[in-house]
Amino acid sequence: MVSLDASPPVLDVRDLRVSYRGRGRVVEAVRGVSLRVDPGEVVALVGESGSGKSTTAHAVLGLLPPGGTVDGGRVHIAGQDVTGWPDRRLRAVRGLRAGLVPQDPTVSLNPVRRVGHQVAEALRAHGLADRRTAAARSVELLDEVGLPDPATRARQYPHELSGGMRQRVLIAIALACRPDLVIADEPTSGLDVTVQKHVLDQFDRLTGERGAAVLFVTHDLGVAADRARRIVVMRHGVIVEDGPAAQVLGTPRHDYTRRLIAAAPSLTSARLRPRAAHATPSPPLVVARDLVKEFRLPAGRRLRAVDGVSFEIARGTTFALVGESGSGKSTTARLVARLTTPGAGTLEFDGQDLGRLRGPAVRRLRARLQLVYQNPYGSLDPRLAVEDVVAEPLTAFGAGSRAERRARVAELLDLVALPAGTARRRPPELSGGQRQRVAIARAVALRPDLLILDEPVSALDVSVQAQILQLLAGLQSDLGLTYLFISHDLAVVRQVSDIVGVMRHGRLVETGTADQVFTAPRHEYTAELLDAIPGRTHR
Q1: pLDDT digits over 156-186, tens only?
Q2: Which range marks the domain in which residue 258 is found?
Q3: What is 193-205 written as a DSSP string?
Q4: What is the pTM of this model?
């Protein structure tokens, strides 16, 4: 292990000030931030969206978006004062001395270049490899960050990979030149817990073996608890708390820090509502028997995404399907929603065989079964006012007069705790949490029996996530809703679920009550998932 005390900091930021200019106004995003990261140290910079944490990270590398300006302060990277350096000069620092793992792999990877070429480009840009050796090294890097069959992945394009795989490609690019500093902006937010653990272990090896420094920008306090030596808490552009991780999490001084910790599902096992009774006098709402779904692949191959899956969902309860990317949980949800049909097996909804439904019967089913997606920005029409977005299902099914629909929209916005003025705004004008509330309001507009919730809070900050989960719990109690909850976040699942089904390679390997699954897992894969939950040792 490299000594931390004898060496100067790898990153030293002093009194950094950043503002954004646009539409005739100036917004001070970062106001006098000072922080340091020593060799071999992992520092977590935490806070909600808008706190200034990502702006701080991007300002360090000169990667502010248009309108962003560094108004003051100094930045030292690996002993060099890079304050005020032009972009051309900073290019020699990026990748070689300081690597960046961006938050969104969808926009950060070139969609028309193969993955291996993009990893190799970082090596060739800094003269660390030629075309042949860069190609071989890119495969090694993809293997190091946990991509299965890395030689094949290197020949693929980004759209052919899952979101978690694309994120690992970004991490491989950031680590390619073995930099002194890695700035990771929400590097694990889209990853399954086991993949997340693998990736974070890579960062641990980077710091332990080479003395590199890591600045984690994250809203996941569980990750910060497990991996960071120090935690720096930001709010409204200023640092409100900075100290050793054990101190910040164990005896936080600032009220904002205490609220963040209380909202983090990975740091608590608190249940949001009482568990539903195990026995119910009424028949289950959903019954799945031996479901099979296959997809055709190139070269005549077939992928069995769902393989003999059976389960029941009792009315008024939450059935959670968990598992890694590619486990089949989202395909199973699409089968229940009748967005695709099974190749074998049966599905019943409220006693009806879904396989026999045709035409008008399928349309009537849509009114009783609604979906809430992971990304509310992508599922809401940005051109429509919120009142029109929420009214869409009412209009589509001819529910009530125009005045009655308007009244129903006002009632729904109140139900999800949005102010009345929200009705006239458009989705891009809202925060992520507000957009998800709009999506939930639209989903319950027709008073459905079942909500399918596909990663409904994975893109949200912990405090906003807690608000949405509380909202869902309240709606379930008040409206008698039944939930099929799809998630890779087991800490969230423990808070909300009554029954948990664990999927792997298309099969349901374990089903049981949440207490059974989380305290006494029967399958070794379930135990592996539980062991990978971040923050468990800090509860």
Answers
A1: 999 888 767 888 899 889 988 989 999 998 8
A2: 1-97+180-187+214-263
A3: HHHHHHHHHHHHH
A4: 0.78
